Description:
Blueprint lengths: L7 E5 L6 E6 L6 E7 L5 E2 L9 H6 L7 E8 H7 L9 E7 L6 E8 L2 E4 L4
Parallel strand pairs: 1-7
Antiparallel strand pairs: 1-4, 2-3, 2-5, 5-6, 7-8
Amino acid sequence: MPRLESQPRASSLDSRFLKCHRIAVPISSILSPKGLWTNADGRCLDLLPPTGSEEAKKEDTDLKAGQTYKIVFKTKEYFERTNRQSFYPWVEISFVINNPGEHYHIPLLISPHSFTTYRGS
């Protein structure tokens, strides 16, 4: 049974302290980008304010069914801090929220010359 949690979570398996941003799409209107750092487990847990909170209402960040969202991982900054070069200066992951009541976990697996992502559980 899926966890009923409406905030997307992002994580990166090679990237403790990788900066990530959440950006609402369409690309022509970037809404409230918020830069966060991954925690010691490589996760950005608070990409959005809690659903229904005053902050969520003020920023209009409650997830909407059928809406496309994007997370941007600033990978160049991370690799530079670890004295490595990276082929990818950032990684953008776009995804559609079909059911705002479901849990969305969006892992990023990255090395200096490759990356992959998927919808986690």
